[in-house]
Amino acid sequence: MSLPVALQLYTVRDEMQADFEGTIRKVRALGYDGVEFAGLFDKSAAEIKALCDEVGLVPISAHVPLDDMVADPEGVLKDYAEIGCKYVVVPYLTEERRPGTDGWEKTISDIRLACEAAKALGMTMLYHNHDFEFIKVDGEYALDILYSSVPADLLQTELDTCWVNVGGENPAAYIAKYTGRSPVVHLKDFVMKGKGGKLYELIGIDDESETAEEDAFSFAPVGSGCQDMPAILEASIAAGAEWVVVEQDRPAKGHTPMQSAEMGREYLKTLGW
User: Fold this and answer.
1) CATH of the domain at 40
2) pLDDT value for 182
3) What is the count of structural domains for the chain?
4) What are the residue ranges in the chain where pLDDT is below 50?
5) Considering the domain boundaries, does residue 209 fall inside one?
6) Which range of residues forms the domain containing residue 118?
7) Which residues of 62-91 are buried (b: 16+ CB within 10 A; e: fewer)?
């Protein structure tokens, strides 16, 4: 058994900016079944839906900044509903919104409001974690507090397996923990050569942390890093996932983003996916 495979288009964001239609067609040619958006690049919902229908890609979901959804929930989300996205995703929390800050409780409240807006439009909200949700608040991971604070009929998980690992937990076990609440799983691989590393600079965000070793951490095409992908895939099926999504925040040295997307898809094909 296998699941359909989508690409998080943040992986090829520069290509999307330069040639939206051509990039979508290339993604389909690589064998991806669906796409997860990270911006619409000034394209209308109607033309994006038409393009996806034409090439045979399912627009499963979209990463949308929480602040945008809070500012104008219906206005921001309606395009994704028109495109046909089943899911919309909180992709990242800015520093002032994270657990351990004064903004954390408001973040949970704002996520609930965004969830309700998505549900009203026929979509389900997901939360895409990084590693900073794996700090403990009163003895419990902040990520688990979020999921216990917002009910499953409003908020489902999109566990990012790289960041679960970096956060100190076993990705397959964490997917299993959220069986029945894990419709979409992010497949992301990495190489950790030492301690430290400016992890968030690798995803295009300023990172003031100290680095212990140069190139201590780097993203890798799915199947070529340290992740136990067969275990993650097996856990995704057992947990009731509907999709797995390949994402690589930055290409490995010597590869283009599209080559990285291709390498990840080819690896999954060797497993029968």
Assistant:
1) 3.20.20.150
2) 98
3) 1
4) 196-198, 200-205, 209-212
5) no
6) 5-189+225-270
7) bbbbbeebbeebeebbebbbebbbbbbbbb
